[in-house]
Design a protein that fits this description.
The protein is of the alpha+beta class. The protein has 2 helices and 5 strands, in the order βββββαα.
Amino acid sequence: MATKQIKIPKFDVDYDDYADVLYISFGKPKEGIVCEVAEGDLVRVDPYTDKIVGITILDFKNRYLGTGNDIKASAKAVLPGILKNFKSCIH
């Protein structure tokens, strides 16, 4: 059985260095219903369309950045796992 590839849409990142929080937006940033798919990994969903509008990652540097400093590349690397876990959060 082949593994299904998760397509990553175009996204923008905003990183709060003081709080160590990464905000990922798909399109214009907007509020949504939050689903915590793993501790500190929050997916925001538009309540009217059920589309993912963004992801918030708490404690980003400590959990995901590792030794590199490329925040966008690190965000792109962790997105497939977060999006995969999101599917199990839908009721």
